[in-house]
Structure prediction request, 559 residues.
Amino acid sequence: MRKRDPQAISRGSAAEPARAGIKNRLVPALFLGVFMIAGGSIFYVLCARPAFRILQARQWPEVSCEIISSKVAEHQSDDGRTYSVDIFYRYWIDGEEFKSTRACFFDGYSSGYQPKAAVVARYPAGTMQVCYFNPHNPAEAVLMRDFYPEMFMIGGFGLLFFCVGFFPILSILFGKNRQGAAVPERHGENFPYVQHAGAARVRWHAGIPILRSDAPPADDGVVLKPLAPAVVKFALVAIFTLIWNAAIFFGAGNDVVRLFQGPFTGINLLFKIFTAPILIFFAIGLFLIGVSVYLLLAMLNPTPVLTLNSDVLSPGGLLKLTWRLQGRAERVARLRILLEGREVAKYRRGTNTVTDTKVFVRVPLVEEQDPASIAGGAREAEIPELIMHSFESAHNKIIWALKVEGEIRRWPDIKEEFSIIILPRSGGIDRQ
Amino acid sequence: MSDRLTIQLEAATNGFAPGETVSGTLSWNLPKPAQNIELRLVWYTNGKGDRDVEIIESAVFSIEELSGTRPFKFTLPPGPYSFSGRNISLLWALELFAHGSPETTQAGIVVSPVRRELLLYPADESA
Prediction:
């Protein structure tokens, strides 16, 4: 790990003024642009535009109409058989006859037969129904002006794709975090998932935290904020689970049903063999549901509240910790609080950015099984004089955090983390 | 690495504590005239993560002769310390190069309170 580079390190390096060519950024930007355009198009065509038109149509007056024909149309494509509602109706405005084929604003074909058959059953041929017409253009009418859950599910899926492309493109084109740009001095800028511990009391310069001269005092201690509160973890996973499962259900639901229908012979067997891998995506969907439920239960756990003498600590100084469990602390059978140091390296592999984390030290501070002590207490520990301080550069980082682990029988455990900053000490230590 | 450019530290060791002064002499012996030479105090990372480099201080010397010497002196900042882990190592160096020439050289130094590289996993070293 400690290889010294025989070439000049700083010459022409990222530390010099940025000279990264536009070419270096254009290729990944174009690649991500495909995601952005595809996702944006899906969102616009299948969600935003229909939603806007439905809102408009809700102001339209109603009129009687006669259903001339009504059936489910079949379409054969490379992706298999798809269906659409094929309804033809007529209506009269001020004695003038108009005809329309628009059933709703959610256009397009899909593989689901049943929903289309239900619409056709609701509007059988030869019956009189109610439709809604555009007062500014009576030739435009619609039978149904309701929102559809599919719109938002597919739209959400499209939006997800859009974000997958859009935000990395912003970062690539305009961010300071790219290769060839100056190393930023602000803590957390390159590792946005890290809470800005001690943000009010330190500034970051050349990779190290420096105590501000105008730092507010922490005489009464500092209540630490968790890195990722339980509700945030649940919300993020639940949204992703919803989008994933909606996409799988609407995209491949029928294929899965067909997997279990029909004989396991001939062409049917071939279809089943080729379609079977879809089940992996369903299994992932089920796993995500399981994780969501786990995190939902974890939200009901007692919440650890940690107070430190300061969230910016010095080597050789004292760490004064008090803890309190808000909520039903008696459910917790065992409580551990650890000081953890870890090294985080971020690197590019192809078009992906990979983050590798390794824990280099775990110091137990609290280990309690007594219910009264679990509910709350205080502990002091000395920070070793010779300890690697917090460090942050564009791609590499030393993080210090307090980890709280609470065991609850037959329930998800408490797992919270609180970031702290350890300053470099000044001067040397004369010892071997 | 070049014989035409050299960095000679004044101290007997290359280990320094934060805040201490790194001084020495740089010398050059170039085949062609160069406008100036530059000495940089830098740290950089090695390991799994993409390399980060920070120029802490730099001194540019105008030179008229093809060879010569100059003294230099840098004061070290409070950190970061030289350290080595499984994902990241942080190293310090003095780098000397001549502008308008490919010649370059460097001298590694160690910056930490004990003037040795800190090992994040001491057991790795003893194993």
Remarks:
- Chain B touches chain A through 48 residues (CB under 8 Å).
